[in-house]
Amino acid sequence: MDERTRADVERAEAAIVEHYSRLVRLAYLVLPPSMGRHRRVLIAHGLVQRALPRARLRRRIRRLPAQRGPAAERGYGLVRLRTLRLALSYEGRPQQPAVLLPSVPVVWGLRLFPRAGGADELALDQALSAVPAPVRAAVGLWHLEGLDRDVARGVLAAAGVADPDAAQVAAGQLDRTVGAGAAALLNSGEFDPCTVQTRPTDLLRRRQRVRTAVVVAAVLVVGAVVAGVPGGDADPPAGGSGPATAAQQALDPARLLRAPNERWADTARVDFTAWPARGRQAGDQELLGRALRVWAAPPADARIVASAGTSTRPPDQPPRLLYAGLIDNVMVAVFHDGGRLVRYAEPADATPTLHFARVDDADMTTAGALVIGRGAGWMRYLVAPWVAHAATRDLLAPGTPARPLRLAPDGVTNRVPTPPEAGAACGQWPVTQFHASQRITAGDTFLVTDLGDLAPVRLTSSGGVAGAPALQSWARTACSLRSLRGAGVRSVDNWAFARQSLPEDGGSAEWVCTRADTWSGPGRVTVQLQPPAARAAEPGRIAGHATDTAACSRFGRPVVGDIHWQAKSGTWYLLAAGSPEVGGIDATGGVRATTDEGTLAVPAPQHAQAEVTGWLRAGGRVRAMGS
Fold first, then answer.
1. CA 274 – CA 212 distance, rounded (Å)
2. What is the DSSP letter of 351?
3. Which of 164, 277, 357, 609 could be cross-linked to 590 through a Cys-Cys bond (beta carbons 3.0 to 4.6 Å apart)?
């Protein structure tokens, strides 16, 4: 090891004092997310404190503490490099790390974690948890340290990264996936281990641990006395183990969280945390232990399926058990870790499968069911304990009554047909209606469909969930849901924002905005015109669409659509309509027209290019959604 002078050490100490929070933030980012936020916070602080180099000193000199200023800047590169080396060394370590030096902060009776962020911060955190430490280090050097790629490459190489170029290529791919704003997100409170929130650990469990510790201490005292007696066995026992880490506790089936059977009927939080543990194997410790171990360390032949935007990281604390039992000759266990559903499936003659789905901020309806099993053309739901009745119906046949769906005592439904895959003929679209118990609501009804994920997709409409207008609108929209399969969709809403009388007595058409919201936040929007049709399931005509937009939501409600339409006479028209907030519409470019109303119809060539703008009653304007 190269020796450093007292001046070098003083400059390094000054750098740590000056830039402590900056260094801790970098260490927190590079450390493995699998160790949990509490341990990452403590270890990040410990690593920065350990980054101070040592110097061989012949005599002790009394001096002032390290001061801020230019010396701190000269020593910063050294302590940043040492911090990176220490943080990178944790990649691939066993869950129980080596014992740190006494300078590491110790917290008793509290859990520490950075302030929670929003959907964007959570998406970035999940993306970072899916890449190795050198990639996270490259991202940190770019966005936290402001280094360019050449300088960052040199720092990564000096820190011991085997392939700095590959790490930066992967970091660039992650940047493109996350999108603009990664630097701002990394500098937010979600990634600040110096500004933390606290919560107590399990108080009852801690009390029990204290009692156990007292008993163990008494036994150790007696053992020490016995060991001191001549002829006693003075050799320490082999194979002893220390206290279980948080990660080890998360793999203990005896520590799984289980809600009381009637919790859902007497709580203000009606979501997956209120689900009781159900299924015949809910007490099968061997099955649950296998499931947790596969989750923590999947074997090479295990099949891993994750919904879009969902992390597959191991549990960092004991999850909640929702179900364990046999479903169509497959042993299944389902867990909830606060933000994800995890289904473990163990076929009798095949390798296990893990399915992950993001369900953070679920409510009574989005936590109303999950897919417990599926096969060729069918699936089964496990419904929430507050679901009193269920029925199925075909969205493409709005006039056909719903058919009752049997619920087993453990909440598992009979088989339900699955909707057609993308590219397949769309001859039917099965959905399921759930009726909530009057013990928590006024008997609310909600509609869901399966788009291939573990969590079903809730369908809503401005005309009510299952009323005739809503069902008629969905009949003409349902087949477009195929494009959303596997996209991590949380809910889809049909909003009939305008009604327009068509020229030449063409009847009345409805303008519909279909908005799909994902669990990760971004929405997809499609605007379509639904003119009179001979068939109830005749698809509407797409007028425009957009992604990553707030349009047609409570954050960006005003919308305008336009489309070319041909009357029975053969004449082509430009049609446009706006939502109720729109008090006038202008068309410019290849078509020039204006109106002080919310709809516009003017003769125009079929391919005439027009710029359509709606004027808001409250001031401002909104452009028509592009196709």
1. 30
2. -
3. 609
- Supply the DSSP string of 106-170, one letter for each residue: --SSEEEEEPP--HHHHHHHHHHHTS-HHHHHHHHHHHTT---HHHHHHHHHHTT-S-HHHHHHH
DSSP letter for each residue of 26-77: HHHHHS-GGG-HHHHHHHHHHHHHHTS-----SS----PPP--SHHHHHHHH
Q: In DSSP terms, which residues pair with 586 in a beta bridge?
A: 594, 613
Query: Using CA atoms, how far apart are residues 603 and 586, in angstroms rounded to an integer?
Result: 14
Alpha carbon 451 to its chain's center: 17
**Residue 528 exposure: Cα atoms within 13 Å on the Cβ side:** 20
Cβ atoms 571, 504 nearer than 8 A: yes
The whole-angstrom separation of Cα 233 and Cα 226 is 8
What type of residue is 261?
N
SS3 label, residue 226: helix
Residues 6+ apart with CB under 8 A from 243: none
Q: Is the four-CA dihedral 589, 594, 600, 605 of positive or negative sign?
A: negative
Q: Please list the ranges in the chain whose pLDDT falls under 70.
A: 1-4, 55-74, 93-106, 108-109, 111, 113, 115-120, 122, 179-181, 197-244, 442-443, 463-466, 627
The rounded radius of gyration (Å) of the Cα atoms in the chain is: 30
Strands 353-358 and 303-306 turn out to be parallel
What letter does residue 367 receive in the DSSP assignment? T
Distance CA 17, CA 172 (A): 32
SS3 sequence of 397-408: CCCCCCEECCEC
Alpha carbons 614 and 514: distance in angstroms, whole number: 19
Chain centroid, CA 213 distance in Å: 38
Report how far residue 304's alpha carbon sits from residue 300's, in angstroms, rounded to the nearest whole number.
10
Q: Per the structure block, which two tokens stand in for 607?
A: 């391919």
Asked whether 417 and 332 are in contact (CB, 8 A), the reply is no
Altogether, the residues listed in the chain come to a count of 627
Distance CA 145, CA 155 (A): 11
Q: How far is CA 65 from the centre of its chain?
A: 45
* Helix-helix angle 20-30:6-18, to 10 degrees: 80
Q: How far apart (Å, rounded) are the C-alpha atoms in residues 204 and 200?
A: 11
| Lookup: tokens for 351 | 């390798």
572-606 as b/e: b if 16+ CB within 10 A: ebbbbbbbebbbbbbbeeebebebeebbbbbebee
Distance CA 209, CA 215 (A): 10
Phi, psi (rounded to 5 degrees) for 550: -95, 0
Q: Where are the beta strands (DSSP E) in 540-616?
A: 541-547, 560-566, 572-578, 582-589, 593-595, 599-603, 610-616
- Within a 10 A sphere around the Cβ of 568, how many other Cβ atoms? 10
Q: What pLDDT sits at residue 326?
A: 95
Q: What is the dihedral of CA 23, 25, 27, 32, to 10 degrees?
A: 180
Beta-carbon contacts of 234 under 8 Å, excluding residues fewer than 6 positions away, are 227
CA distances from 194 to 25, 62, 298 (A): 8, 31, 33
Which secondary structure element, helix H or strand E, spans residue 343, and what is its range? strand 340-347
